[in-house]
Amino acid sequence: MAACSLLFRLLLVLLTFSDSPAQILGLGVGINYGQMANNLPSPSRVAYLLRSLNISRVKLYDADPNVLVAFSNTNVDFIIGLGNEYLQNMTDPVKAQNWVLQRVQAHLPQTRITCITVGNEVFKSNDTQQWSNLLPAMQTVYRTLVDLGLDKQVTVTSAHSLDILGVSYPPSAGAFRQDLGEYLHAILNFHAQVKSPFLINAYPYFAYKDNPNEVPIDYVLFQPNQGTVDSITNLKYDNMLYAQVDAVYSAIKAMGHTDIEVRVSETGWPSKGDENEVGATSENAGLYNGNLLKRIEQKQGTPAKPNVPIDIYVFALFNENLKDGPTSERNYGLYYPDGTPVYNIGVQGYLPELVYSSDSTKNALSVFGLLILVIAYLISA
Q1: Does 354 or 265 have the greater pLDDT score?
Q2: What is the pLDDT of residue 354?
Q3: Structural domain of residue 340, as residue ranges?
Q4: Which one of 11, 163, 199, 222 is separated from 251 by 20 to 30 angstroms, measured CA to CA?
Q5: Burial class, 301, CB count within 10 angstroms (exposed 0-12 / middle 13-18 / buried 19+)
Q6: Could you tell me the CATH number of the domain that includes residue 87?
């Protein structure tokens, strides 16, 4: 009887990971899968973890072939990245074509690559040469996709920090920095032409950390609060993230565009920080990401765009121990590298254990293989 009970429990586990309707909560959220660490699980194990969470949208900061191969035939949509160090090379059509052939076309259609981010937070640096290279690189990559017949399935964009805003409050007065005007105006024209989204990395945490006495903690954590009212539009905001997104929409509109969607390519909250990093706690991180997921499930739009569900990629999947900077930079993950949740946000994931063969070689068996062996043994017993 005990064997039958164990068999039933094992079958339930298998069903949880199958393609049946027994999937757990579908979050409708994307996740940033950074790899600046020396202790992360293999991409194949990460694929199981994300499948257990029913997360089907992943953003990378590169085009790691190990990850793209591991996610073959998983129905996960990938945003892949071209680092800032590639911008100059990507203005060369030959080099751009070689990159697209090797990093994109070689993995299609087995792995679903849907977007390429050319550069990340380029305007955060003072490298004006990179500023100048950004748009030509985006254009060259896009033309390469057109030449290869891939432009209908793979979009081209770039991710920006909120530092590109010169004015962010009230949201309706949002405006880009004057020194970036000529660059961003041309980039927006490109987005409108190719119909790709404008990506921003938005972190209310930074605003709170810098001004904890002026920024209400409940306002940045999506907790119940009085909110703020835009004095121009009379729209009420009950959280800072939506105000930040609408400020970007206003800045884009001020440059003559109302046809470009703003998406959040990064947002999150650190679970640990240095002494001067106010608010970086696991409790606050759990509240921020947990409340954010609830709003994503509700398909909420911002006050200025109520009918456009906000599109968000949470930062990040794992804590990354090799990142530079303050302690917080290494503690944005939802999970520790061993698959243990850093805090509870109301969803359960599963990272398969590594199981080694009897001759002690390092050929790992997947959890599914192990379960099948146990079931076969029980049936024959």
Answers
A1: 265
A2: 58
A3: 24-379
A4: 222
A5: middle
A6: 3.20.20.80
